[in-house]
Design a protein that fits this description.
The chain has seven helices and seven strands; from the N terminus they run ββαβαβαβαββααα. By secondary structure, the protein is an alpha/beta fold.
């Protein structure tokens, strides 16, 4: 996937860091499903969709919801009119988002390459750059995080470790109660052993 951005610069959200070297891009993008989000902070349709996309992304990558972040990366390709508008929008979005710098002509290249004519649009790509979904906006609205499983299978990622929020919640409940159950089992076993010892002593007494 880094090949798509070779020679380009991506910005880390809410930081001044640039992700630009081939090694940095490979670490950030390779072996992951890539979402290119084309939008604008002031666009009414985008303003309705952005909170859904934010929740979608967090439920797949935030440790509050999943045991391990899914192999997913999002790059914001804005149509904001000013750099201030782009920055303000990104500040309200997850820190893990990346973005094409404001004013970068590469944004237009991406729009033409993936035939993006209106926003919001979410292009879903395999690690090799092949398109999985041309525009996943409606799919995300309809299915939420569940649609990532289909993308993951299509992308043939090396590591298929994935947990939805519900799975993680169930796992958390088990992990919290297991030590209690084990402790109770040990106590019960010790009590039974002591009782057995007392009974044997009673039988051996004159």
């Amino acid at each position: 996937m880094a090949a798509l951005f070779t020679g380009k610069v991506l910005m880390a959200n809410r930081e001044q860091d640039e992700v630009e070297t081939e090694r940095e891009l490979s670490r950030a993008l390779d072996n992951k499903v890539l979402l290119l989000y084309f939008g604008a902070g002031q666009c009414p349709r985008c303003r309705r969709f952005a909170p859904l996309l934010k929740d979608f992304f967090l439920r797949l990558t935030d440790e509050f919801y999943v045991n391990r972040a899914s192999q997913l990366v999002l790059v914001y390709v804005s149509r904001d009119e000013t750099e201030e508008q782009q920055s303000a929008f990104l500040r309200s979005m997850p820190k893990r988002w990346l973005a094409v710098p404001f004013g970068d002509a590469f944004k237009r290249e991406l729009e033409l390459r993936f035939a993006v004519s209106e926003v919001p649009a979410v292009v879903v790509l395999k690690p090799n750059g092949e398109v999985i979904v041309g525009n996943a906006v409606e799919e995300i609205r309809r299915l939420g995080p569940a649609c990532f499983r289909n993308w993951q299978e299509a992308a043939e990622l090396v590591d298929r470790n994935f947990l939805l929020a519900e799975d993680f919640d169930e796992r958390s409940r088990r992990s919290l109660t297991d030590p209690i159950r084990r402790l109770k089992y040990k106590l019960d076993k010790k009590a039974a052993k002591n009782k057995k010892g007392e009974e044997e002593e009673g039988e051996g007494s004159p």
